[in-house]
Design goal:
There is one protein chain. Strands 9, 12, 13, 14, 15, 16 and 17 form a 7-stranded mixed beta sheet that branches. The chain has a 4-stranded antiparallel beta sheet with strand order 1-8-6-3, with no helix packed on it. Strands 5-4-2-7 form a 4-stranded antiparallel beta sheet. α3 (161-170) packs parallel to α4 and α7 packs across α8 (334-349). 27% of the residues are buried. Mean pLDDT is 80; it is low at 85-153. By secondary structure, it is of the alpha+beta class. It is elongated and about 95 Å long. The chain has 11 helices and 17 strands.
Amino acid sequence: MVLEFRLPDIGEGTVEGEVVRWLVEEGQAVAADQPVVEVMTDKATVELTAPRAGVLLEKRAQPGEVVPVGEVLYVLAEQGEPAPAPAGAKAQEQAGAPRTASPPPAAPSPPRPAAAAARAEAAVPGTPAAAPAEPPPAPAGSAGAAAVERQGDGRKPLATPATRKLAREQGIDLRQVRGSGPAGRITKEDVLRAAQALVAAPAAPAAAAPLAGEEPIERVPFRGLRRAIAKQMRRSKDTAAHFTYVEEVDMSEIVALRSEEKERLAAQGIKLTYLPFVIKAAIAGLKKYPLLNAELDEQAGEILLKKYYHIGISIDAEAGLSVGVIRHADRRSIAELALEIERLVKAVREGRATREDLTGSTFTITSAGNIGGVLATPIINVPEVAILGVNAIRKRPVVIEGPDGQDTIAIRHRMYLSISLDHRVVDGAVAARFMNEVVRHLEKPARLLIGA
């Protein structure tokens, strides 16, 4: 029995998914519940598993293609299911033309190579098709050594989409490759042998320098996480009315507190950064000004004030920027927040983050302070209405008022906080009051522990 596997509704309003990569090749056996393909939605990247054991007959989408929910992703057959007829044979059957076998040879002859047999099978019905003699082997070390053979019959070479992609990447013309698979199908190994043969060939004369306007360009596929980020950012800029408010904070007491505690916590396997302190301070502000922990439902004409605090944190990974979510962050201590941050960062960078790890945030904090940067204007992570940017902590001379009321100059650890908000929901005065509350807790970190 042949099964067409369709892209399922993964939930939370998903209407389409982008194929990231195939984990199984065509013709390969698949066990029940074995991951077959990796698909990215607006929410997360998921591995879709086979509903039963079988053989992957056909992929219906290639990496980078966007597939609507309900569309066929791949075709799965039971073990022993006959493979589908070649495209040429199907066309003949649809046209009603009889398929006539070539007349038997007058005398027994050795078996023909698979490639020659495939060409004979594709010959016009009723016309004798003699198998062409095998070409003599190419000299050792030449560009075509044992792997390259010109296909002179004009047919499209037999190869899977994955093999064709590999050939394009290696700069190999499949018409020049001799296939070693069934019916002359070209395999990945055939392509790699051809590529090695080209590398071993004598170097061609150096090309002339490019003319003006012909400078080299590398084309990088715009897909996967990068395209998902672009879609989310465009959606944010097209819907939210952005404005940014900036405030400065004295981090000196937190710097001292972290310095005192980081070695003790490190002995317990906890890496203490500044981010848990910022999360705690932000939650204090959100509780006092709930409009920033909200979502605008324009269709219903309502602002949804969320009474829970799922804090998103931006995570820089090789594939691109992701938002990990700390659920019920208000219920966690500084040390517990540090542990959860470390877990999320590791999961995202190793590609093991779950859907729950990456969805459902109510307020996001983005921090590039460990890299540098004085100030940034972050883009809101819609459907949220606010995002807090944490910038670099730097020593600066500042004027402070002493106990006696006299101004003095001291070296302090200073940092800018920049918050972008949706002006449809949050006014500038509310943003300023929220930031004052955050600063108040960061400058006196005892308040983070006491909760006042």
